[in-house]
Amino acid sequence: MGKEIKLNDSGFEMGIYTFGELLRDPYTGQIINAKQRINEIVEAAKLADDAGLDVFGIGEHHRLDFAVSSPPVLLAAIAQVTRQIKLISATTILSTADPVRLFEDFATLDIISNGRAEIVAGRGAFLESFALFGYSLDDYDHLFAEKIDLLLKLNENEHVTWKGQFRSELKGAEIAPRPIQQGIPVWIGVGSSQESAERAGRLGQGLMLAVLGGDPGYFKPIVEAYRREGLKAGHIPAKLKVAVGGHGYLSKTSQQAKKEFYPYYTNYFKSYMKNGMLHNITEADFEQMVSPNNSLFVGSPQEMIEKILRQYELFGHQRFLAQMDIGGVPFNQVAKSIELFATEVAPVVRKEIKKGCKKE
């Protein structure tokens, strides 16, 4: 038998997520293959579960520099080697997916994992899946609106009658299998779009907010708009949950963390932000990005604790997820960062938030 895990009773969940990048190591020039990367993702999830983290997420891409195109398949493998950690997509590109097939896959994952599956539905920052699956970018917004409507109906009903523009209609269709949970938790993935956040609120689904840089205060109006629209639509406050995702990396000291992570973070930007203004990050840029008033979670455990708690004061969110394997960071370093996050950051954050809730 494995060691007993102390359950989180704070109401605030902590976890990690990955997109499974396949980038050239800036030191060695080598690129690991998809098999090794997927094996490392499974091992990271097992480590997170053993250490008592609450959530593990996997994102979806359809290109050769990412290892994961089917999150539910990989999450099902992870379900077999973990016991209690929640297994989520981060995110599912709903605009180019068939909601019926997607729901069936995650309902199956829910059964395999004994009720641990969740979906984060988004429109996708990368656009390759539109041409790959036969969709037009001209329908970018309409696709998501129609498909989230269908997905939520599938989640609520065993038999569905539905008609839309982008797929065949359903007439009393049997939707199987049914998940173990009463309904699979669905979150709407949002970047900086207040309109998308307001839609999530009107739908009464969780808001998964990507806060990847800059002053986190910029995102406070987005969270407020989400809750405002949710309440206006008649949803109870308890249903309007907020999760925050951010880039992060930990070492015992701030200087060590910055020294280790900087080459990989610049590697990430050079690879994926070629058309952006910040594709070439200087050390001075990086120092600004990791400063106390910015959203990049790189440093010592204490620095990460302070940043998470500052964001909690701004957003009052229920979940924080960190992406720690950015830019080709070797797995042994990622594993150490996860361990510090689970053992030195998560317990303190949960304790402080629980303490604050009791005072209220």
Question: Top keywords for this entry?
Answer:
single chain; 360 residues; alpha/beta; TIM Barrel; 8-stranded parallel β-barrel; two-stranded antiparallel ribbon; 11 helices; globular; disordered N terminus; Luciferase-like_sf; LLM class flavin-dependent oxidoreductase; Luciferase-like_dom; monooxygenase
SSE order and pairing:
Elements: E1 13-18, H1 34-50, E2 55-58, H2 71-79, E3 86-89, E4 92-93, H3 99-112, E5 117-122, H4 128-132, H5 140-156, E6 159-162, E7 170-174, E8 186-190, H6 194-203, E9 206-210, H7 220-232, E10 242-250, H8 254-272, H9 283-289, E11 297-299, H10 301-315, E12 319-323, H11 331-359
Parallel strand pairs: 1-2, 1-12, 2-3, 3-5, 4-5, 5-8, 8-9, 9-10, 10-11, 10-12
Antiparallel strand pairs: 6-7
Question: What does it look like?
Answer:
Residues 14-314 form the Luciferase-like domain. It holds the Pfam family Bac_luciferase. InterPro entries: Bact_Lucif_Oxidored, Luciferase-like_dom, Luciferase-like_sf. The chain has 360 residues and is α/β, with parallel strands linked by helices. It has one domain: TIM Barrel (Alpha-Beta Barrel), CATH 3.20.20. Helix content is 43%, strand content 16%. It has 11 helices and 12 strands. The strands form 2 sheets. The chain has an 8-stranded parallel β-barrel, surrounded by 8 helices. β1 (13-18), α1 and β2 (55-58) form a beta-alpha-beta unit. α1 packs parallel to α11 and α3 crosses α5 (140-156).
